[in-house]
Amino acid sequence: MFEIKNESIEEYKNKSMLTPECGGVVTFEGRVRNHNDGQSVDSLEYEVYDALAVKEGEKILREAKNKFDVIEAFCAHRVGHLQIGDLAVWILVTAKHRKQAFLACEFIIDSIKKTVPIWKKEHYSDKSIKSQWVYCTEDH
Amino acid sequence: MKIKVIYFAALREQAKKNDEIIETSFTNPADIYNLLKKKYNFTLEINNLKVAVNDCYENFDFEIKEMDSLVFIPPVAGG
Fold first, then answer.
1. Do A47 and B79 touch (CB under 8 A)?
2. Considering only CB atoms, which residues of chain A are within 8 Å of chain B?
3. For every one of its 140 residues, what pLDDT tens digit does chain A have, with 9 covering 90 and above?
4. Domains and CATH numbers, chain B
5. pTM: predicted TM-score of the whole model, two decimal places
6. How far apart (Å, rounded) are the C-alpha atoms in residues B3 and B66?
7. Is the C-alpha dihedral spanning A31, A47, A120, B69 positive or negative?
8. What is the ipTM of this complex?
9. Distance (Å) from the alpha carbon of A71 to chain B's nearest alpha carbon
10. How near does any CA of chain A get to the CA of B57, in Å?
């Protein structure tokens, strides 16, 4: 399941998708950091094309489940105006074994960054620098 | 024919609107983007964009029909 929220998604961290056959659980937290490309960042504004984002997000989770031997996959993405340290994306994968859970989790976050229509605008500490829409060209 | 165009992120800011209905004789997203690029001075080149028609990713030569909704998608940055 892929969810988009306009408010905090911290509560998802209590989510459990455990089943008796589950031997490995991998979670990923993507948080707003205070710098990018040598600039000090104050906050981030996320914008989403909701209908397509949910559809693409669900597709990625389905692909992850088909591609890897995982039991469940879940992702929540926050949009709106986020401050430094805020949780922007949270992913949970359960599997019988850890390796498949790690691989699936990495596949999910990498795919989200490539195809889910969510954009982010950086607001800089140095107010003489104009806020701008950014995107990632490297796999960090 | 009439087409609904919805704008996001950089394109929304440059068009200064969230959406609009346009009247055009063009029937594919590539021609429509070039038209709008001139109208609003969009800075993004077409090869940096993806396009969605009725909430599905399509190619730029997809045939648009009356009252389809069209979204040009700037480079995404989720996560």
1. no
2. 30, 46-47, 49, 51-53, 55-56, 77, 88-89, 109, 112-121, 133-136
3. 999 999 999 999 998 899 999 999 999 999 999 999 889 999 999 999 999 999 999 999 999 999 999 999 999 999 999 999 999 999 999 999 999 999 999 999 999 999 999 999 999 999 999 999 998 766 66
4. 2-73 (3.10.20.30)
5. 0.94
6. 6
7. positive
8. 0.95
9. 23
10. 8
